[in-house]
Amino acid sequence: MADTITPEELNLLIEQTYRVENEFNELKKSYAHLQDTVEKVVEFLPNAVWVLNEDHSVFLQNSKARELWKLLKLLEYQEDDYEIKFEERSFIIKSSSYKDKIMLSATDITEQKRKENLATMGQMAAHLSHEIRNPIGAISLMSSTLKKRVIPENLPIVEEIQKSVYRIDRIIKATLMFSKGVEPKKSAFMFSELKRSIDEAVEYYGYTKDIKFVFPSEDFSINGDKDLLEMLFGNFITNAIDAIEEGEDERGVVEVRYQEDGQYHHFFIYDSGVAIANENNLFEAFKSTKVKGNGLGLVLSKQIAQAHGGDVSYHKGEKKAFEVTLFKEE
Fold it and tell me: Considering only the top CATH level, what class is 185-330?
């Protein structure tokens, strides 16, 4: 006679089945929790991460990796890290393997490389500026002496030399300041004093067209570094002059409007010249938005304004303008 299962054995088998099922459900929950944790950790990473199966199908990826799905097609498993360029950006690729899975990560190093390049360019530019400064000083001194002795017919030639030297000197000062950093030495002065300095700089800058300059009529006190603020406003005024010179009209207007709100000075700078060619290059060192320029003027102007507790911004609209804000220190 075949063996029969007793009720006690059946109950024990049922209990074991329930226990195994509960353990399996707990294991499923633990696995789901672990999977969810892994996915959240991978999502939290600042770089794009792919985990691939043996057939290179995607087993796991984060949102950054999904955005760069075209980049994945270019990647290869390599023991050593390597760099790749993709859509005008630079990435460092790292890879590793574990059992039947391959992990790839892509870290965007575009900004890091840009800063490294800027630092290198700044050092080179500062070195060149030091080398150029002495001969430019000698030319400036000799042209001043020559201006006193030259016959009237040749005076415009000497004045043109002086204007060219002045432009080079501005570039040298901007380059050296960019490499050293902006450190303001503040004191109180009236806006009319600053305007006189700007007028002298504009007169020395030189231009060929009939340009009307409109400045605030009211006078007010500013607490700041007058030399640095002269450079800041000089940059915007000369940029406006260049924009008008590049245009087809023989006349132009450069206007500076002023407002204050009790906490900040607000200056709005307009011009009737040609529009900015590439607004994406604004405030980008060594990338100029105009035909002539080294791209440092706006960068330094922004740094100077920030060193005075303010900022520089560009406003689009019917009348495009730069706004300069300076903190009103008592």
Answer: alpha beta
Helix (H, G, I), strand (E, B) or coil at 124: helix
**Helix or strand (DSSP H, E) at 131:** helix 110-149
SS3 100: coil
Q: Residues 277, 278, 284, 287: is their CA dihedral positive or negative?
A: negative
Please check whether the domain covering 47-108 is classified as CATH 3.40.1840: yes
pLDDT one-digit tens code per residue, 162-221: 777 777 776 677 666 666 667 788 889 999 999 988 888 787 777 888 899 999 989 999
Q: How far apart are the C-alpha atoms of 263 and 325, rounded to whole Å?
A: 10
Q: Which two tokens stand for residue 82?
A: 């390597």
Q: C-alpha distances in angstroms, 102 versus 51, 105, 177?
A: 6, 10, 49
Task: Single out the residue of 216, 239, 252 nearest to residue 312, CA to CA.
Answer: 239
CATH architecture of 112-181: Orthogonal Bundle (1.10)
Asked if 170 and 213 count as a contact pair (C-beta separation under 8 A), the reply is: no
Burial (0-12, 13-18, 19+ Cβ within 10 Å), 14: exposed
DSSP one-letter code for 215: -
Please report the DSSP string for 135-198 in residue order.
HHHHHHHHHHHHHHHS-GGGHHHHHHHHHHHHHHHHHHHHHHHHHH------EEEEHHHHHHHH
Return d(Cα 295, Cα 235) in angstroms, integer.
11
**Domain ranges for the chain:** 1-44, 47-108, 112-181, 185-330
> CA-CA distance, 133 to 171, in Å (whole number)?
10
Residue 283 is predicted with a pLDDT of 62
H or E element at residue 263: none
pLDDT of residue 1: 45
Q: What is the pTM of this model?
A: 0.55
**CA angle 266–272–274, rounded 5-degree value:** 115
